[in-house]
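User: Predict the structure for this protein chain, please.
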Amino acid sequence: MSSTLFRTKRVEQSILDTEEPEHALKKSLSALDLTVFGVGVIIGTGIFVLTGQVAKNNAGPAVALAFVAAGVACGLAALCYAEFASTVPVAGSAYTFSYASLGELPAWIIGWDLVLEFALGTAVVAVGWSGYVRSLLDNWGWHLPAYLGGREAASGFGFDILAAALVLVLTAILVVGMKLSARITSVVVAIKVTVVLIVIIAGAFFVNGANYKPFVPKPQAVEAGGNLKAPLIQLMFGWAPSNFGVMGIFTAASVVFFAFIGFDIVATAAEETRNPQRDMPRGILGSLLICTVLYVAVSVVVTGMQKYTRLSVDAPLADAFKSIGHPWYAGVISFGAAVGLTTVCMILLLGQTRVFFAMSRDGLLPRFFSRVHPRFRTPHRPTILLGVVIAIVAGFTSLSELAELVNIGTLFAFVVVALSVIILRKTRPDLHRAFRTPWVPVIPVLSVCASLWLMLNLPAETWLRFAIWMVIGFVVYFLYGRSHSRLAQEQKSGAAEAAPPPNGTTR
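Assistant: Here is the predicted structure, written as structure tokens:
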């Protein structure tokens, strides 16, 4: 049993699978494309929303330090991802990495986890995008009927037509090809980075030094709670982190960490990169560095423009400019947020389809989904299937409470990838590694510790939902994946050839 559950797929075989004509993706991406993808998915609601929330509730002006701490935690994971993505340039990201190091069952678990993470992430972002667009339309005097604004906007039946339409349009773009996706992403990323730079440059002229005092507010105890919405660490140990003070900075880091989620999706495009050994580390680490600098700069400017106690939680950047009498900038920021979320949604959908495609090519999901389009060389079947499903989910559901499943799923993937780096260094020291994670095993161990710490700060109910999804995954694996995987079929073929002929006959 253990020999089948933990059978590993050789790195060489994974790379050979990418050369099969019917299952080969088109290689068209450069380091610049990968960096743009990374920036495109990282800069989203986090920079436009979380800054005000954590500054007001957790860290004060020291929210900039929280972004630095979260960036360091993500950097540890990014170093591990960079080694794997350049060594195993195959679609699937953490799923493929764990298949080569931990075995089939752990690979299935992480793949199942990523499918949920990216699906919910895409739907949640699409619903958020719809909200921004409806707000802009309202400002222009155009009002959608309530029943087309989603469940929260209508009494009774409601379908978020904008969210569903966005997902379907992006699905079509992804089917046509990665290069078109990269070009559209480049244009959209340029717009939203410009908006972020406007916030930084224009806002710098309105900074009041008095707003930074105190830079680290005095700590305040958090009221204890015993329900499932409380952080898991509080229920386990009866301890809750404090707001403000030094511990408030780390509490804020556990919140703003999720504004960085997305750089790991760059690794899912490794198979479609022209020179993955060189370009994957540049794309992963470059996008994370750029976004960390922008996040820190924005937080410094916004907390200098307006006292942290007065910052808006829903739209801190736009409302900060309104508070100083410049509503035009607020409109530009809202427009940038709406435009920027389109790339977040598209790249999340891209990541999910590539993981699904890789699992199908390995036989853990039906092989029907592993054939690429004869002209566009994209995995059109899983892209269309998942796009339609996510469009329906986004149209009917707000998913506000399920959004945290995206966070725990990402952190779980970080833990698996860090452990996989250590294991593959031991089991396959002969592999050529164009990029090597420094200070192994120190960096991977620190990455595991940082990810686990942030996971413990998530609500207990998030852990419960995550456990339910994992149980469903185990059932699917044992009913289908375990017997249909390509490794299982190869083992059966080998056993049949080695078996003695029946009834004493000769072969």
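The two ends are 30 Å apart (CA to CA).
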